[in-house]
Amino acid sequence: MNTIYHIGTVGQRWGQPETAQWLSEQQIKRSFFDDVLPAITALQHDFDLEQYGELDYQPVCGKRYPLFAVKSRNWQSDKPTVLVTGGVHGYETSGVHGALRFLQTKAQAYSDKLNVLVLPCISPWGYETINRWNPDAIDPNRSFSADGKAAEAQLVRQYLAGLNVHFALHIDLHETTDSDNSEFRPAKAARDGTINNNWNIPDGFYLVDDAEHPCPALQKAIIDQVAKITHIAAADENGQLIGENIEQFGVINYAKASLGLCASVTEAPLVSTTEVYPDSPSATPEQCILAQVAAVTAALDYLLR
């Protein structure tokens, strides 16, 4: 199904007026400062908090958003280091709250064997406006290459480079939602002057492995654990999920570095991107959060094995 977006002219890329119109239509719908930031600061008794940057969006919404990393306490250079990222797409709620729940309930149990680093909410303006893009109509999850344009992504890159550590594993927490078809994919096609063809939204959890450096055994270990929490997405009639061929049950592959995806930011040998489906009639918001936690712990257990 082709969906024509209400901003712009079909076949023509957006200019500044179209981007400004899009931004003028975005509204604050929930609060990073009420929902997320207090949960992060409450972790300071058990973890080290580091503010790695700030997004000054005062001209847009009158706010500055502090960006925090949460680190396990007994950080040691001889232990493997793992990264968990959430909220690269701020509208993907369980990515943010799954990262926080992992910190609240599971992370300390791993800190004797692993250095654990969590960036729970990379795109707080996107969280507040329930948005995939930042205020410049740029997708942070296509901006993790050196020439990426989203400040959300570049601040993460600079922070991680400054740590000067080698990551053994990176799990990036995402969702696929019905609004991908109703809003975000049509908007992207309009912005880029292309034609949108909606894909089938998978009903259930799935993973995106790295086509350039696949680790299928890790993906299977995650799927096996998450299946105990919520259902795994079945392939569509074309044997695909979101237009990509199935590599194994519940897993597709993307070329992550080529696309500038967050999951390419560390060059870790073990990488996975989760995709939870919060709009499923068969899954609750709590199940979505628990599925993210299960994915993270399954990945860490796989690494330790």
TrEMBL record:
The entry's keywords: Hydrolase, Metal-binding, Zinc
Cofactors (names): Zn(2+)
Domain Peptidase M14 residues, every copy: 28-305
InterPro entries: AstE_AspA_cat, Peptidase_M14
CDD domains xrefs: M14_REP34-like
Catalytic residues of the enzyme: 275 (proton donor/acceptor)
Gene3D superfamilies: Zn peptidases
Protein family membership: Belongs to the peptidase M14 family.
Name of the protein in its database record: M14 family metallocarboxypeptidase
Organism: Rheinheimera muenzenbergensis
